[in-house]
Amino acid sequence: MIGTIDVDVVRAIFDALGAKLELRVLWHGPELARMMDEAHAVLAAAWKARLERWGWLVRVEVSYSRYGERGRIDLLAFHPALRIVLVIEVKTDMVDAQGLLGPLDVKLRLARAIAADLGWAAPALVVPVVLFRDDTTIRRRVARLAPLFADLDLVGRGATAWLRSPSLERGPRGLLLFSALVHGDGRPPSVARERIRVRQAPERAG
Fold it and tell me: Residues with Cβ < 8 Å from 38, sequence gap 6 or more?
């Protein structure tokens, strides 16, 4: 029964058959997509502003096409004094770890060339960053797949502290962050107030 099989197991089976598994979640027509897009935009905007306050140069939705690889980087940041590049993936959910980490590895390999295209000095260090919406279910899923995220060796407050005061001597292999869904001014977005309403059928007269 598919309901009792882990998604990663199903994906491995499809991979062995040369097939690709794609998952879609439908809820209230376009409403779910709208909510997830808003949440993604809020997280990206809040962290762009935060990083810029800490001295980073930040580009949003950086597209690339090199060596047959095409895609977009959610946030690409550069510390001009230390020549550190951050490749930041923003995620509002955690459905497929391999689907997240595989493309991130490609972006890391291309980051130096992409940075050069932007006119940034040759990076001394390239650091992957995975930024999740802070949610109990997401934290539980990440914890269950901890070995896959082992290279993200600075987590939570430690990762934030390094971003505030980065150092090449203490350069991490990667950063893992969980961030509350709030605007830069501290206001929760409308998506945070969305609720799924269960409609009850009216009682029939006896």
Answer: 189, 190, 191
pLDDT, tens digit, 9 for 90 and up, residues 57-114: 999 999 998 888 889 999 999 999 999 999 999 999 888 888 899 999 999 999 999 9
The size of the chain, in residues, is 206
Burial (Cβ within 10 Å: 0-12, 13-18, ≥19) of residue 41: middle
Q: State pTM to two decimals.
A: 0.72
Residues 151, 153: Cα–Cα separation, whole Å = 5
CA-nearest of 82, 93, 103 to 137 is 93
Distance CA 91, CA 97 (A): 11
CATH topology of domain 27-193: Trna Endonuclease; Chain: A, domain 1 (3.40.1350)
161-181 pLDDT, tens digit per residue, is 999 999 998 889 999 999 987
